[in-house]
Each structure stands twice: as structure tokens, then as C-alpha cells.
Amino acid sequence: MVRSLAAVAAAAAVKVAAQTSTTTSEFPFPTDGLPTYNGTGPTMLRFGCHQLVIDRIDPLVAPGQVPSHHQHQIVGGDAFAATMPSSDISALSSCTTCSYSEDFSNYWTANLYFRARNGTYKRVPQIPNYSDIFTNDPFISQTNGGMTVYYVSPGQNQVTAFPPGFRMFVGDATLRSPPDSPWDLSTQTCFRCFTGPDFEGDMLRPCLDPAVDTMHLPNKPCWGIRANVLFPTCWDGVNLDSPDHKSHVAYPVEGPHVFDGIGTAEECPSTHPVKIPQVMLEVIWDTTPFNDPDEWPEDGSQPFVLSTGDPTGYSQHADYIFGWKKDSLQVAMEAGCFMANCPGLAVQSVEQAAQCAVSELAGDVYDGWLTELPGNPAQPTVSTTTSSAAEPTPTGKGKGKGDDGKGKHGKRKAKRWSS
Ligand SMILES: *[C@@H]1O[C@H](CO)[C@@H](O)[C@H](O)[C@H]1NC(C)=O
Ligand SMILES: *[C@@H]1O[C@H](CO)[C@@H](O)[C@H](O)[C@H]1NC(C)=O
Ligand SMILES: *[C@@H]1O[C@H](CO)[C@@H](O)[C@H](O)[C@H]1NC(C)=O
């Protein structure tokens, strides 16, 4: 049975919100309390984007560098380049890979590679496949790699859509252990380990099911792995970017907003008073061709590695460059829309979106068996302290549901390779 992930998410979400509505039995999950996306209620856009390109460039963190430190997979508008101006990129784009055709934003994350026992690597293919039984979205299940993008607003006049030139980053590509944070960031980045075919085990909202979600890469074979990365939901209201690409945005005072499909922040801190839409990216990898136990490491660790060179998964991160045309995102945030149908927003066909592409610049060979990861990315310095006795007592920071806070590589202490 193929479930609609976000629908499940929304259903579970609103159970929490304890609203009421009628129950429909045709859906393979509880629908008690599903919100009314009726034009005045919350908006949850959920839409597919084909892959635009796989490349070792990063206009946000390493502008102008070709190639940059590690490889990404990118979706969105074709203005994507090694250097991108802080102006309205929708005006520089002629097409987008996303189903909402006014969204010329760029979104990117790391790729996933499998490392065989003989030490060679193979890129793990991304799959799009899950149907959307609520809105019969024909696009989302047919994307060519790429990802699913979500935008959430709690209702009318509650969030401020990003201005042209806005960009942000979440995560830390140098991490090899749980983040040192006062917040429980396991609700903001996680890997879901599907327990059977057709996304089995996908019952609860992203990053909130300890049975299948971990902040580190799963340490057992899965029927596919799904990554979710959520961006902060408060903004200083002034700066389009900041030197670390993070400090102009912040989490609400009550902590990072979990994905519930209906809300973003109760209260933003006074330093970052502006509530912005909650953006979440979702990537699914088909790991099933790589589940042969004879190819898994003999020491009991797991064989997947992010394109950062990270075998833990803690370096998961995501980049966003806003590029919706004119006020289209604000209009959508006010519209009480659900999934890929939003009156007032233009859409394009899956075929049309697939024609949008840009050329790879780094010149990497990245398919087939590789003797090293693209760019053979330098790794952060790892301290020599490996005795658990010498480790500080875990404080619970960065720890939470679905994550034991350590994982296979929890004893490693990461340091930055720069700064
Ligand atoms: C729309 O939904 C919201 C809750 O999501 C509810 O408060 C409001 O009354 C609904 N409006 C109409 C016209 O049904
Ligand atoms: C390494 O292992 C993989 C997986 O078994 C295999 O397909 C590949 O041919 C091997 N490469 C070499 C150079 O032995
Ligand atoms: C996607 O789903 C369809 C229908 O369920 C199936 O035939 C197809 O093999 C799936 N594709 C992938 C890549 O899983």
C-alpha cells in the first residue's frame, strides 16, 4: 500500500491539534481531525521538483568556487549557477523543475553514496514514488530524482513570505556527531528507515517516529531511506542573508517547530520577530539494491556515506535561495491551500518541468563505481579521544525522539576543518 506521506503527516498532526471533523474510511490512516484547508485555514504546499543538476558547486556557502568542497543535488530554477546575485532570481530564470511554475527558487542537499567492501562508491538513486491520494497530484510521483518541497503557513496574515534575494542554510556539513544545541534538532533533520516495500513504516509525521527515524544514518538495512530537513521559522526581518547564512533566521522561543503541516511558530524571539513559512525538503533514496549483507562493513557499521564524506549522517544540511515570482508565495500562504492544488498558483506538467536543466560545471564523473567520492572531500579533524570514559556525559542536547543521540559514530568528536 502506497501511503501519502504528507497526508499521513497532516492526519497525525491534527490529531495532536485535537480538532474535529468527519471521518472518512477510504484513507489508509486515521483522518479524525484533519484540518479544513478551506481558504481561511492553514496552507500546506507539498509539491515535486525534478532534479535540475547534480554538481559540486554551492552559490550560497562557496560562491564562485568550481568545484566546491562536496557534491549536491539541486532542484528549482535554471538561474542556478556557481555565483548568484542577491537580486530577484525569478527574473533571471527561464524555467523551473518544480510543479509550481512560479517557483524559481533553488533547493539543494547532499547526495548519498554506498561504499562497498572493496572500498568503491556508488551513488544511491533517488526515487520520487509516492502517490498523493488527496489531490491526485500526477507530478509528485514522477519526478526524476529531485525532491518534495513543503511550505506551511498557519493561516491568513500569519507569515511573511521571503523577499527577493533571501537565502538561508540549515545544518552543518562538518558535523560527525549530534549537534551541540539547546534545542532538540532531531525533529528538524532525520532519516526515516522504511520497514518494507512501498514506504512501509511511514505512519507518523517526519522526524517524530522513534521507531523509524534517526538523526544519524540508519544502522540497519532499510527499504529505502527518506531524509527530511526543516528550516527555521523566524527571521530578523531585515537581512536577506548573514555571514554564516544562518543567523538572520532563528527558531521560535518555544523551540524548533516540529512538522505538523499547520503551524510554524507560536512566538518568535525579539531578535527575529518575523514569522516566515516553514520550509521542509524531503529526499528519498532507493537503498534496496545495496542491502546485500556480504557488501556491508564487517565491523557492523553501515555502508552509506553522504557526499560530504560523512558516514554518520549528522552533516546533513540544506540550502535555500528564494525565487518565487512576485508575490506568488505570499498569495499561496494566505490561500488555505493543501498539497499541489492552490487556486491562484500556476502549475506546469511533469514533462514540461523535466525539460528544465542546467549543465554540470565541476566535471565530475559521479555514476558507476567510483574509487573516491566526487572531490574526495577533506574531512573535519576528528579528536583522538575515543574512550567513552573520556567523553563528557551526554547532556541530552541535540538528542531526542527517534535518536539515541549517538549512533554508530557517536564517539567521534567533530571539529571544524576551517575557522
Ligand atoms: C476554515 O477552517 C478553519 C480551521 O482550519 C475554521 O476555523 C474556519 O471556520 C473554516 N471556515 C469555513 C468557512 O469553513
Ligand atoms: C567493488 O564491489 C562492487 C560491489 O560488489 C562491484 O560491483 C565492483 O565491480 C567492485 N569493483 C572492483 C574494482 O573490484
Ligand atoms: C512507482 O510506482 C509505480 C506504480 O506503483 C510503479 O510501477 C513504479 O515501478 C514505481 N517506480 C519506482 C521508481 O519505484
UniProtKB/TrEMBL annotation:
Keywords: Signal. Residues 1-18 form the signal peptide. The keyword Thylakoid does not apply. Residues 408-419 have a biased composition (Basic residues). Residues 373-419 are annotated as: Disordered. Residues 58-324 form the DUF1996 domain. Residues 378-396 have a biased composition (Low complexity). InterPro entries: DUF1996. It holds the Pfam family DUF1996. This is DUF1996 domain-containing protein. It comes from Remersonia thermophila.
